[in-house]
Amino acid sequence: MILAPSLRLSVIVPVYNGHEHLERVLAAITCSDLPEGDWELIVVDDSSSDDSAAIAAGYADLVIRLSGGPRGPAYARNRGFEAARGSFLAFVDADVLVHPQALGLMLATIDRDERVGAVIGVYDDRRTSNRTVSEYRNLVRHFEHQTDTGETSAFTAGLAVTRREAFVLAGMFDEWRFPRAQAEALEFGHRLRSLEYRIVRPAGASATHLKRWTVRDWLRVDLLDRGVSVARLSQFGDLRMLASRLYVTTTVDALLAWVALTSLVLDLWLRSMPVAMVTLAAVLGLVIHRASLFASFTRSRGVVFALAAVPLHLLACAVYSLASATGRLMYHAVGESQPDPVVQAFSEVGARTWPPVPSRRALSRADTVPLHSDNGGRSS
Known about the structure:
By secondary structure, the protein is an alpha/beta fold. The chain has two domains: about 5-210 and about 340-375, Alpha-Beta Complex (Spore Coat Polysaccharide Biosynthesis Protein SpsA, Chain A); about 215-340, no CATH class. It is about 50% helix and about 15% strand. Helix 12 (about 290-300) crosses helix 13. It starts with 6 loop residues before the first strand and ends in a 10-residue tail after the last strand.
């Protein structure tokens, strides 16, 4: 059962094992410059094995606890929507620390123009980790956001506000094809824009991305989850440029990266000065081609960090191009990623979500914990 709107805004936070950042994230949301009593906070716990649900209970108006194993943010966000009472929906990831004015600004922006279907946020460049890999990843996203304010074609779900009717008309997030954090946001944005809704990113809608990356996580996400996921979609031609922009890479960057990596391996084997010069030329070419990115790194973290980021960006370009090629090969060999046969069978009898969700599940006593002011939660 999907509730009729009775509030102005519903803020939906999907979380899976979010103990590290969740309390700060929820506290920041509750401190937002939003009208008291005209919004609600919903946390969807995607079968966490830590104390995420208990943390959420101290802040949220409603905690939806999913069981049976994690099913991904697309599924969790959709379940949050089904319980939401707001005319507008805000999606905030469990590692995104919103600034006090961000949600209010986003809400005002979308309310001014009915053609705007979604407003998305801007990640700042605050230091969140001592790890160079984490800083590099978060600063790349900051750079991409800062250089893409105003109207944009790439929807991101880490911090976003959408119209309720637009979200429904676009078909919600595709939880059938995206069981993990993959390309669900880009693909949803593609459908939203196909309905002639605009997507806008105001410069002042700021947040800090708290995610901490390891090299292993980074390569897994870019290679298996996002890169291959995007390339296996039938809309690849439309989505490729959007996905490439998220990682600040192009075909030229990928070519330079592969030339540099290949010549570096050859140089280690042959110890040849001409080969070493090719490596150096390719690296310099990449830096020059992305001078604005490395200038941004220098302004935020200094010259030493910018130099350390060169091999990381070289690797990022190579990995993303490899993922894109692998995904396209899989698309032409076996087609788009599809649900398994059991899921397909349920789709043929009319189930609209997977796993199938009874109509009242989002509000059932077994799966939700309504919170009141007497037990620490926000009262609605």
